[in-house]
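My current task is to audit a protein record that another person submitted. Please read both lines and tell me whether the tokens look consistent with the sequence. Do not assume that whoever made the record got everything right. I have pasted the whole thing underneath without changing anything:

===
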Amino acid sequence: MYRDKANGSRIPEMFVWLVFHNLVVACLNLRKLDYPGPYVHCDIKPQNVLLYQSENQKSYRAYPSSILGDFGLYYRLDYEPITGDAGTEGHLAPEQYGPYPQSPVRVDIFQIGLLIWCMMRNVVNGLRDPPPGHQPFDPHAYGEWKKQFDNFDVGHGYSIGTYSRPLEALVQSCLEEDVRWRPDIGTLYESVKKGMDKCQARNGGLKSMTVDNLPEWEKVEYKKDEFIIGQPFTGRKHRPGQDDVGEDNNEPPTHDDVAVDLEILKGDV
């Protein structure tokens, strides 16, 4: 995560838009899959988004590309209702708390919005841990969700204006407690694409820049903790706390397609 003296910990807005865009595209593609799909991903969180730097990127080469992973928890959109709170505490949508059954039609919309909100607010665990000075909220009580988001802004001293109004408004629309007020995936895609293009235009051609000529305040720094895309990697631990796989944990990666966890952006996220 990039840190500047004026705003404390701040991830550049262009990169936030790019992650937003790629998550929406991933979920849109899941909904286009044939039987037994379409699918709705129901465990979208920073730990399940990988950052991938590739020489084959045609645009925004100064930034790592983001990839949605971990498809172990999902709903089959056409015939599988929500019947329990499968997912990760702190990153669940309101309807995942019941009463059951519920439609999963916009669970991914909420979770995408929550992940982007986490990036903007420098929050790791979503709504799992209460902000300073506040008690945990009751996810079953209607109206408590918006209050909890407001509490985080107050508790962490978030300054409105750190990010643009269009980005803030679009994220808030995804975080509506009532699923009927959230955008559908197609509308969200168009809105994110429009916002991303406007952000790029405001910032002097970031789309064509490389990391070498990117302004310091626009750079995204992250720790190197590799995950291999598309094949098992036996050279080191996959995640902290897991058993070692292979004989040499210090062995460097030998595959070109390497990604890192979004959670380990430098900073607190």
Remarks:
- The first strand starts at residue 3 and ends at 4.
- The chain has a mean pLDDT of 79.
- Residues 3-217 form a domain with the Transferase(Phosphotransferase); domain 1 fold (CATH 1.10.510.10).
- The radius of gyration is 19 Å.
